[in-house]
Write a structure and sequence with these properties.
Number of domains: 3
Oligomer: single chain
Strand content: 5-15%
Number of strands: 8
Number of helices: 14
Structural class: mainly alpha
Shape: elongated
Length: 358
């Protein structure tokens, strides 16, 4: 087969020096060879073009893999027709039935395969890390790094990683680094948070909006994480934010279960007990005043916006109705009635926050 390829190459070179008719005939023969459908046992051929690879190296890889047995002819053809220039590194997927001309077009277009990874709102950094480690086609670098090491490498040494990574769908090429995805998520979160924070400050300076009880954008991020965990109903985010902001302004404790659950970590087994609520941890908002020290989950832009744009409401309490929504109340008496209405019909230990102080 190699001899045949050499013969074809010499033939093509020879025909170059002959008349146009002979050249056309030779070109037609090569075109027929390059137009032959390729078949792969698994229905698809995966080609990895490493950084720095030459077009000639790729043609030899085709020969080794049994894709096309005439590497020198292919290299000549690629150079002559401009396929060998600007070869993009990455993973290429070639379907059965494609011809070598199709393959060359794919390489010329740089249509590398992109994989995707979705980081969800409301997840913890611990879950994100494991998700990255479990994702195939990534180079795994963060497994040997502590959380502090990760943040230091991001230029944010001393910052707690929780809530610092923006939940979204991230696309990547084979052999990209898991740290690269974390860096993109980190930078995206900072960009979204600071834009929303600046917009709020601008609104406060230009209108009669009440000032929010946050000293920094980080406080707003903490609040956004609580909102993210408290409701899955987009229409309720601003109302939930209003409840917690009213409580902060009145020096009332937040008394929100998601912070307690976060503080329990692996000790949480599905139910919050009275013992848990009495335990004084940095995240037990039944025992501490103000916000917990860090966010408790990842947050999307909508939760950040809600934390900075609460509804105009004087509600101080809410209780889960059992359908994913909540009943909001202005007074303790109203709240207790709502609890009887919506929760006594459910499990005795089911609770919703915030509730009256213990």
């Amino acid at each position: 087969m190699k001899n045949q390829g050499a013969v074809l190459l010499r033939l093509l070179l020879l025909l170059t020096f002959l008349g146009s008719g002979a050249l056309w005939m030779g070109h037609a023969h090569v075109q027929a060879l390059f137009s032959k459908p390729l078949e792969f046992p698994e229905g698809r051929y995966a080609l990895d073009v490493l950084p720095g690879s030459s077009f000639g190296g790729v043609t030899r890889q085709f020969e080794r893999d049994g894709l096309f047995p005439h590497p020198r002819l292919l290299a000549f053809y690629g150079r002559y027709f401009g396929y060998s220039r600007n070869l993009k590194a990455g993973e290429y997927s070639i379907a059965s039935g494609s011809s070598m001309l199709d393959v060359l077009d794919i390489l010329k277009s740089g249509a590398v395969v992109y994989h995707q990874l979705t980081l969800l709102e409301g997840q913890t950094f611990k879950v994100f890390r494991q998700q990255l480690l479990d994702t195939q086609n990534l180079v795994h670098n963060i497994g040997k790094l502590s959380d502090d090491d990760v943040m230091t490498k991001l230029g944010a040494g001393g910052v707690h990683p929780e809530g610092q990574f923006y939940p979204d769908t991230y696309f990547f090429q084979k052999n990209d680094s898991d740290f690269d995805i974390l860096k993109r998520a980190y930078l995206r979160l900072q960009d979204v948070l600071q834009n929303e924070w600046r917009n709020r400050l601008k609104e406060e300076s230009n209108t009669t909006l009440d000032k929010l009880p946050y000293k920094t954008s980080y406080d707003a991020l903490i609040m956004a994480s609580i909102i993210e965990k408290e409701t899955g109903q987009p229409s309720e985010r601003a109302e939930i934010a209003a409840v917690f902001i009213q409580r902060l302004k009145k020096k009332m404790r937040l008394q929100t279960d998601p912070t307690v659950i976060y503080g329990l970590g692996e000790r949480y087994q599905g139910n919050i007990t009275r013992r848990h609520l009495r335990e004084k941890t940095p995240y037990n908002t039944y025992r501490i005043n103000g916000l917990p020290p860090t966010p408790i989950a990842s947050v999307g832009q909508a939760a950040i916006y809600a934390a900075l744009h609460p509804a105009k409401s004087t509600a101080l309490y809410f209780v889960a109705k059992g359908d994913g929504s909540h009943k909001f109340s202005k007074t303790l008496k109203e709240h207790q009635q709502a609890v009887r209405q919506y929760q006594w019909k459910r499990k005795a230990n089911y609770r919703s926050a915030p509730t009256p102080s213990l």
